[in-house]
């Protein structure tokens, strides 16, 4: 298939693109290399994709280079568009909320329009568990998102989902909304807890934990990529799927497992952060039943692989 991956130089996008290339797809990546985190890191991630095989890359922005990006879509004529481009990060969205309207909503509208005009048959959107708001300690089913979000990031993703639905009625493509749950693993995003903690622990620094009794449904990157690829099996014109592990991990458990690797670790507990939710827990029965999605990495093995990677790339993380 011909596939456009927006945000393909990012954490999830670089792993996904490598896998798609290895599976024989023709991949075109559009990524502006946004400086939300190190641009060098994104260039490194692009280099990594080259090991998988050939692909095209355009350093263009979905919002600042509209005309050129539209031309790329028209010329390439993708079968599928996988739209990952966004600025992530809950705390940053409280600092610069309007950026999230631009990068997470307006960019999505452009991708939806360009995909439709270019005749794509499927549009896959990277949404987030944050759209469920703060519904604590219960498995979250796809129909439980009701708009009661608690951060500008989540509000932008929830709004972008609505645009995806609107465009599924305007254009003749299938739309898949995938709600990712805290993705981690090698080359994990540097602003996210697991990557940040490991980096600090390797430098013998204290780690800071926000709030207590929090829990996250951590998804290993390879399982997330498998989840995205499983969406090719979607039958309905429009559908929403949780892509998670289905097993939440308490912060105490994460700390305990990290202590196994870094016995001298020092932990400072501080207040719960505004915009965060207490817990996330994905009910993945819909993706299992309809897409054949089966996450296979245990948290213990995933964490161990992530630490192994971090130690081997200490200078780059
Ligand atoms: N990592 C997670 O745990 C997680 C969880 C839920 C949802 N998501 C969503 O998955 C997607 C990928 O996340 P990630 O962790 O790989 O983030 P990332 O920041 O590593 O990747 C996003 C990429 O998009 C690019 N980009 C941003 N705006 C752009 C624009 N307007 N035009 C072109 N390129 C642009 C960035 O340069 C970056 O390389 C995002 O939409 C994110 O919100 C991620």
From TrEMBL:
<keyword id="KW-0456">Lyase</keyword>
<keyword id="KW-0520">NAD</keyword>
<dbReference type="InterPro" id="IPR036291">
    <property type="entry name" value="NAD(P)-bd_dom_sf"/>
</dbReference>
<dbReference type="Pfam" id="PF01370">
    <property type="entry name" value="Epimerase"/>
</dbReference>
<protein>
    <submittedName>
        <fullName>GDP-mannose 4,6-dehydratase</fullName>
        <ecNumber>4.2.1.47</ecNumber>
    </submittedName>
</protein>
<dbReference type="InterPro" id="IPR020904">
    <property type="entry name" value="Sc_DH/Rdtase_CS"/>
</dbReference>
<feature type="domain" description="NAD-dependent epimerase/dehydratase">
    <location>
        <begin position="3"/>
        <end position="244"/>
    </location>
</feature>
<dbReference type="InterPro" id="IPR001509">
    <property type="entry name" value="Epimerase_deHydtase"/>
</dbReference>
<dbReference type="GO" id="GO:0008446">
    <property type="term" value="F:GDP-mannose 4,6-dehydratase activity"/>
</dbReference>
């Amino acid at each position: 298939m011909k596939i456009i991956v927006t945000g393909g130089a990012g954490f999830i996008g670089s792993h996904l693109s490598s896998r798609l290339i290895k599976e024989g797809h023709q991949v075109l990546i559009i990524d502006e290399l946004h400086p939300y985190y190190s641009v060098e890191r994104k260039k490194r991630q692009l280099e990594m994709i080259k090991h998988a095989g050939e692909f095209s890359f355009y350093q263009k922005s979905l919002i600042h280079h509209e005309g050129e990006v539209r031309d790329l879509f028209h010329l390439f004529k993708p079968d599928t568009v996988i739209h990952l481009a966004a600025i992530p990060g809950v705390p940053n969205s409280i600092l610069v909320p309007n950026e999230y309207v631009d990068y997470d909503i307006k960019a999505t509208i452009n991708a939806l329009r360009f995909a439709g005009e270019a005749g794509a048959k499927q549009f896959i959107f990277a949404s987030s568990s944050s759209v469920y708001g703060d519904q604590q300690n219960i498995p979250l089913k796809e129909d439980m998102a009701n708009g009661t979000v608690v951060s500008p990031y989540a509000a932008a993703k929830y709004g972008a989902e609505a645009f995806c639905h609107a465009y599924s009625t305007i254009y003749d493509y299938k739309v898949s909304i995938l709600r990712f749950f805290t993705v981690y693993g090698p080359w994990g995003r540097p602003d996210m807890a697991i990557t940040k903690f490991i980096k600090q622990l390797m430098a013998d620094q204290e780690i800071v934990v926000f709030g207590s009794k929090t829990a996250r449904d951590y998804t290993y990157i390879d399982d997330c990529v498998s989840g995205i690829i499983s969406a090719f099996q979607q039958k309905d014109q429009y559908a929403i799927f949780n892509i998670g592990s289905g097993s939440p991990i308490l912060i105490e458990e994460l700390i305990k497992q990290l202590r196994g690797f870094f016995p001298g670790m020092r932990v400072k507990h501080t207040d719960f952060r505004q915009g965060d939710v207490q817990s996330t827990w994905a009910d993945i029965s819909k993706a299992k039943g309809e897409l054949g999605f089966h996450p296979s990495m245990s948290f213990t093995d995933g964490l161990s692989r992530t630490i192994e990677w971090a130690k081997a790339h200490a200078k780059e993380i």
